[in-house]
Write a structure and sequence with these properties.
The chain is an alpha/beta fold and 764 residues long. Helices cover 48% and strands 9% of the residues. It is built from 32 helices and 14 strands. β12 (594-597), α25 and β13 form a beta-alpha-beta unit. α1 packs antiparallel against α3 (89-112) and α14 packs parallel to α15. The radius of gyration is 41 Å and the shape is elongated. The relative contact order is 0.05.
Length: 764
């Protein structure tokens, strides 16, 4: 039988505050040692044959059975099982009482001096009784010293039971049958220790389940770490949550000063109000990503001097833990850290069916009830669970996309903090061009810094170019399934148009750049509920430069250009076209791209008199498109060869209407001179003036002729000459259904009558 030595109990520092958690736990373990010593003496008094002592826990002797039969049989039968009047117990019990009194006094002193002790704080947060506190200490002991494994196995009368059993806990802490019967509820499923996963029942090594009193109890690892003073977050949560401490740097630029002050005052008043004590504050925040929802939660936590736990609901749903378990541990961690909660991505709950959605939301609300004082539910779309939650104060907050004036202020504030980019770009132009949330503005500037580092040794990278490139990178596009991205290669110096049309294109660019002034500073934004977008119609014959002009505008404004794929938009199924259009405009709103509808009359055609169901649904599509065009706040360019086919209702919604005329001789000469690259070897016989005067085609046809002529010259491995251009012109005319006449080509007509020269393949 193992011997348990008597403890020498000193009373130094009695009444002084504990210096920290470990000193307090050392005293608690001293009390536990005394309890164990007392229990060993009681258990030994039960009697056991000395010859069977080596087989303790494996063999039941006659003497042991007789001792059990001689014990108590009910609540009123006298002393409880194993109790005795051994004279050795009196000094131990006196020492235990004295030590417990000392612990209580020192804990009280520590509380008065605001010294943090984990065990009392845990008891306060989860409303634990002194009995439950002692249960935690008993289960913590084997986590700190392996001697307790042997002591517990000895007292459990089972060498394999190295942890405290429920029966052992009751023996150590209860002196009567009534106390034991009442204390059993501490270990049921609804008790705080079990419901909050503080204690876990360890499976018996045998195949049959253990009886209630024989069930071994283990302390949760996170609770053990907490009692030892470790502030690290639960390892089970790190896959979907992170802890933001008050000491972390925060950028409050994402939150308006008015909302910041109002929310902080409201939270402080509610937390200090005695009538609201115990009520949780729930903020249901809705708005696009980066609009300041999480930043507000951080600002409030900083104002309160508390930490913030930010959790991703989507990751919780997809994680290894059951959602209800993850929610419970999240609420428990908030209580342990005395932290606020910010739940991001609550929209993903809306994708579930109603019953599942309500159950998931209920588990979240149940997890924060009473344990987390303030919780922020963040989503893109507004919404909260049906019905009023538990006894809580609920507030709905909407975070809209900031207007031009607000965006300009944010750009100015952040650019002033960046010496590298201050003065490189106009904040008003940036605010008007990119409809960013505060978070996107901050991220774009950070991305620009990274681009500057990457291109440090490359000359010619202007800060403004890097900043615009970073802004475009922030515009995550979701248009790829319904549109394809066009890399704008042309500038205003490449396109040839009459002066008035060029002026119209530049006016369109100016309207985009000056949005902040007109809609923000001059107040037109408050006068317009819709129609704040910029819509242009480019009409004219094929090849007159409509697509090229769209690229010029994208280059001027430094925006991405997406050409809508009509084959992916128009559907024969009722309602599908409208859905595709909604996806297009929603994606364009978030990615700040220019939408380019080529052959727009296919979508924007005239409405007709309803004669059958087909006409009715066709008119519905056009009406829906009219509505989306008016709601759209970005830039949309429509191009058509047949303006007369466009519905007149679109004309009112157009800010710019540019007619692209067929080029005259002067314009054709400019196009011919601009179409040849500098690297192209040209023969001396090329007559640009003749080509411009005689070959009356559009700019698109001129480009095709130039490219075809280049291939003809490349095949002959010689400089491009007049013969190659005339031959390419003949082919282009054939495509157009025209013939090259002698009146048009004059002296060069003989070139197309001549035999085709021998080519690399050897054919004639």
């Amino acid at each position: 039988m193992p011997k348990v030595s008597k403890h020498k109990h000193t009373h130094d520092n009695q009444g002084d505050a504990y210096a920290g958690p470990l000193e307090h736990l050392a005293d608690e373990l001293t009390c536990l040692d005394l309890r164990l010593h007392i229990q060993v003496i009681k258990q030994r008094s039960g009697g056991r044959s000395h010859s069977l002592e080596p087989f303790r826990g494996l063999v039941l002797s006659d003497e042991e059975i007789d001792a059990l039969l001689a014990g108590s049989h009910g609540p009123d039968s006298g002393p409880g099982p194993g109790e005795c009047s051994d004279p050795d117990l009196q000094p131990l019990e006196a020492a235990l009482a004295e030590r417990e009194s000392c612990v209580k006094e020192r804990r009280h002193t520590a509380h008065q001096h605001n010294i943090f002790l984990p065990l009392p704080q845990l008891a306060k947060a989860f409303h634990l009784s002194p009995f439950e506190e002692l249960c935690l200490i008993i289960c913590l002991a084997p986590e700190l010293d392996r001697k307790y494994e042997k002591l517990y196995a000895y007292l459990n009368d089972d060498i394999s039971a190295k942890r405290a059993t429920i029966g052992l806990v009751l023996d150590l802490l209860c002196s009567t049958f009534q106390q034991k019967a009442a204390a059993r509820t501490v270990f049921n499923a609804q008790s705080a220790l079990v419901k909050q996963r503080f204690l876990q029942f360890v499976d018996s090594p045998s195949s049959s389940p253990a009886l209630f009193l024989s069930r071994q109890v283990k302390l949760d690892d996170r609770i053990a770490d907490y009692l030892l003073g470790c502030s690290r977050m639960d390892s089970q949560l790190v896959s979907f949550a992170r802890l933001v401490s008050p000491a972390d740097n925060r950028d409050a630029s994402s939150v308006s000063a008015t909302l910041h002050r109002k929310t902080c005052r409201f939270v402080q008043s509610q937390l200090s109000d005695q009538q609201s004590a115990g009520k949780s504050l729930l903020f249901f925040c809705s708005g696009p990503g980066g609009s300041g929802k999480k930043a507000l939660a951080e600002a409030v936590s900083l104002n309160l001097g508390r930490s913030l736990i930010v959790a991703d609901i989507w990751k919780m749903l997809k994680g290894n833990l059951p959602f209800e378990e993850a929610a419970l541990l999240l609420g428990r961690e908030a209580a342990l850290q005395t932290a606020l909660l910010c739940l991001e991505g609550c929209d993903c709950l809306q994708a579930e069916d109603e019953a599942t959605r309500n159950a998931l939301f209920a588990s979240l609300l149940d997890a924060v009830q009473g344990y987390c004082p303030v919780t922020f539910f963040c989503s893109v779309t507004a919404g909260r669970p049906p019905g009023h939650p538990f006894d809580a104060v609920c507030v709905d907050l909407e975070f809209p996309l900031p207007d031009e004036s607000a965006r300009k202020q944010i750009w100015e504030r952040l650019l002033q903090c960046s010496s590298q980019f201050v003065g490189s770009s106009d904040s008003g132009t940036l605010a008007g061009t990119f409809r960013f949330t505060p978070g996107q503005i901050r991220d774009a500037l950070a991305s620009a810094h990274n681009l500057a580092l990457w291109h440090t040794e490359e000359p010619g990278n202007e800060p403004s170019d890097l900043l615009y490139a970073a802004c475009r990178a922030q515009s995550h596009s979701r248009l790829s399934t319904l549109a394809y991205k066009v890399e704008p290669r042309y500038t205003r110096f490449d396109i040839v148009l009459p002066a008035d049309q060029m002026t119209q294109l530049m006016e369109l660019c100016d309207q985009s750049r000056c949005r902040q002034i007109v809609y923000g500073e001059w107040g037109f934004g408050g006068k317009l509920s819709s129609g704040r977008g910029l819509t242009a119609l480019f009409s004219g014959p094929p090849g007159t430069g409509k697509t090229m002009a769209a690229e010029v505008i994208a280059n001027e404004l430094k925006l991405e250009l997406y050409k809508i794929d009509l084959s992916q938009v128009v559907s024969k199924y009722i309602g599908e076209t409208e859905k595709n259009l909604d996806r297009i405009f929603s994606a364009a709103r978030s990615c700040n791209a220019i939408l380019f509808f080529d052959e727009a009359d296919a979508l924007f055609g005239k409405r007709s008199v309803v004669k059958d169901a087909h006409d009715r649904y066709a008119n519905i599509e056009i009406g829906y498109l009219l509505q989306k065009m008016e709601e759209h706040e970005g830039i949309a360019i429509l191009a058509t060869n047949l303006r007369s086919n466009m519905d007149e209702a679109f004309t009112r919604r157009l800010q710019v209407l540019v007619e692209f005329p067929f080029p005259d001789e002067e314009q054709r000469e400019k196009i011919w001179r601009a179409v040849f690259p500098n690297q192209l070897p040209l023969a001396s016989d090329i007559n640009i003036a003749f080509l411009a005067r005689q070959i009356k085609v559009s700019g698109g046809n001129i480009r095709n002729i130039a490219v075809s002529a280049a291939f003809l010259a490349a095949a002959e491995m010689e400089s491009m000459g007049m013969w190659h251009i005339i031959q390419a012109t003949k082919r282009e005319m054939q495509k157009m259904g025209r013939l090259c006449t002698k009146a048009e080509l004059g002296e060069y007509y003989s070139l197309i009558e001549a035999q085709t020269p021998t080519r690399g393949g050897g054919w004639q």
